[in-house]
Amino acid sequence: MNATPIVKVLLFGLSMFALGYLVAALFLRLV
Question: What is d(CA 7, CA 27) in angstroms, rounded to the nearest whole number?
């Protein structure tokens, strides 16, 4: 299966959003 560029960008944005969410949660927990 060859993923279209749009799907790749969508998955990349979703992963970055999840990563940012985790970092923000850890930061708020420390503060």
Answer: 30
